[in-house]
Specification:
Layout (H helix, E strand, L loop, with lengths): L5 H7 L19 E3 L5 E3 L14 E4 L8 E4 L2 E2 L6 E2 L1 E8 L4 E11 L5 E10 L2 E10 L3 E10 L1 E2 L7 E9 L4 E2 L4 E12 L8 E4 L10 E8 L3 E8 L5 E10 L2 E8 L6 E9 L2 E2 L3 E5 L1
Antiparallel strand pairs: 1-2, 3-4, 4-15, 5-6, 6-14, 7-13, 8-11, 8-15, 9-10, 9-13, 10-12, 16-17, 17-20, 18-19, 18-21, 21-22, 21-23
Length: 283
């Protein structure tokens, strides 16, 4: 197995994008500009293919409700025959604990490619919530989607980041994969209790992991915990259903020696109180 680093790099630099004080800036993809690269990109958003002489985002018309939408396609590095993961990202301030990210999508994937729309909520620079929506099948006409946002603590986040990718979990892609996205918007209320079930949701360790990864968390009181782990294709690869834990610091150990190399997402919940999505890497 090999360590996967491409998506980690993208997530790590997502906050280098310019911020706008509004709900998903240019989430309808009506504003475009010719920026760093020699082709148009949506204002307020950033992609990475141009650094290697490629293009992975395209201005298409018509959009779901307006004149334009954005299309993602895996791209070729100059001088190479293989295709690489398409990316599009933005970050911006928020002043509300939104309940979901909605939008519209259409398109189709080739092979193992997956469209992932990942939202992460931050407070004082630390992740406090998130949600994800993924597609692998064909959608011939624009279809509405909602990605529920789960939070790990009470309080209003101060910023958000959206990362959209199209490709496989190793950072590659296939010629012919294409999805069009439009009308991204944060809405609704999270509706979690005033007192969260978890005081602390720790970071998984070791990360990257070879044989075993530990999922730490702290409970404010005794409770039944459900843990679910998913791969980048949205397939559930592990579950621990309503296991009882005592108040205080706890953790769940997962054997990952049989897992493919890549990034995995997990959610930890106690009934109606789901936790923010976290990730770990298997190498």
């Amino acid at each position: 197995m090999k360590t996967f680093t491409f998506l980690s790099l993208v997530i790590g630099i997502v906050f280098s994008v310019s911020s706008f004080a509004q709900n998903v800036p240019n989430g309808d993809f009506e504003e475009w500009e010719t920026g760093v690269w020699d082709y148009e990109t949506p204002v307020g958003w950033m992609n990475f293919a141009g650094m290697a002489g490629g293009q992975d985002v395209f201005k298409v018309s018509p959009g779901q409700s307006g004149d334009f939408a954005v299309e993602l396609k895996p791209w070729q590095v100059t001088g190479m025959t293989s295709y690489t993961l398409a990316t599009l990202t933005t970050s911006f301030p928020v002043d509300e604990q939104f309940g979901n990210l909605s939008g519209y999508v259409k398109g189709a994937a080739v092979g193992t490619d997956t469209l992932s729309i990942l939202l992460v909520m931050f407070k004082d620079g630390s992740p406090v919530g998130g949600g994800i929506k993924q597609y692998t099948g064909e959608i011939s006409e624009f279809e509405a989607f909602n990605a529920t946002i789960s939070y790990s603590e009470v309080g209003v986040p101060d910023s958000a980041a959206i990362l959209i990718t199209l490709g496989d979990f190793e950072g590659n892609g296939n010629e012919g994969s294409s999805y069009t996205i439009d009308g991204l918007e944060l809405n609704g209320s999270a509706g979690i209790d005033d007192e969260p079930t978890f005081a602390i949701l720790g970071n998984p360790y070791p990360n990257p992991a070879n044989n075993l990864v530990n999922i730490p968390f702290e409970l404010q009181g005794p409770n039944d915990v459900t843990l679910k782990v998913y791969d980048m294709q949205g397939r559930q690869v592990y579950s621990e259903i309503e296991r009882s834990f005592a108040q205080g610091a706890n953790e769940i150990a997962i054997g990952v020696d049989g897992y493919d190399a890549g990034i995995y997402f997990y959610t930890l919940s106690t009934g109606k109180n789901p936790m923010a999505t976290r990730t770990f890497i298997v190498k």
